[in-house]
Amino acid sequence: SRHPVKKDSSPYFSILIPSYNRPEYLKQCVESIIQSDFEDYEIIISDDNSPRAEEIRNVLRPFLKYKNISFFEQNNNLKEPNNKNYLVDHAMGKYNIFIGDDDKLYPSALQTIKRYITMHPENDLYAFGYTMIDENDQFYYSRTSPKAIEVSLENKTYVRHLFESTIFPFWLYHPATFCCKNGIEKKIRYSNSAGIGEDILFLFDLINLKKRIYVIPESMFLWRKIQNQKSEGQMNQSLEDLSNILARKSILYH
Predict the structure, then answer these.
(1) Per-residue pLDDT tens over the stretch 122-143
(2) pTM of the model
(3) Nearest 5°: CA angle at 29, between 25 and 32?
(4) Rounded to whole angstroms, how far apart are CA atoms 204 and 158?
(5) 100 phi/psi in degrees, rounded to 5
(6) Element (H, E) at 160
(7) Nearest in space to 29 (alpha carbons), one of 90, 80, 20
(8) CA 244 to CA 159: how far, in whole Å?
(9) Closest C-alpha among 158, 25, 22, 18 to residue 96
(10) What would the 3-class secondary structure string for 204-217 be?
(11) Which of the residues 3, 81, 86, 167 could staple to 171 if both were Cys, CB 3.0 to 4.6 A apart?
(12) HSE-up (13 A, CA, CB side) for residue 153
């Protein structure tokens, strides 16, 4: 594994990729980022002890010539929340962006997110819309907020929507892929106690600590949701009904 290259100044974005067993999609994910029209970023990938670790290593090897790309391999399976915490601990950017290892960033996304941050710097987390594709890059739908929304304890209506999880989040933004001010994710750790709901729980804790969420009314990335179980060994965890129910129960008790 490689350690991040120390720089005279922090990059604007740390793009964090928790990886597990998807070498072919991981390659596309990294390529989508380096094709961006924005250059002030670092990419950090942490593979969570994948059975296909050798394939992942081979896929990433050409990218490791870039000084702003770092790759870590875990000796033991940390599970996704701890793998995300590991990535946060190694991030040096002003803002962190998590993206799934099978997703793809739009070329203009980083420039657009920075523009919104510059216009609304008082916020702590910037959520945004997404476009769903399947394992074959087939388009399904796009979800974006019809307008910019600021979610904080000052706005009880939006907070209620967030905690009820009705139109928030999936109708307006993705709960796991967002841009967060560096340092917040070190105070609010991703929790292993919420099952697959560690992203939703993080947003709840963030709001309860009087932080602010800004919802950008644009789609920023392609979210891949596997539709055919036979085509992919690893299904999206959110498709499992029981896991979804157990996550909601854990979050409620929290």
Answers:
(1) 999 999 999 999 999 999 999 9
(2) 0.91
(3) 135
(4) 12
(5) -65, 150
(6) helix 156-164
(7) 20
(8) 21
(9) 18
(10) HHHHHCCCCEEEEE
(11) 167
(12) 8
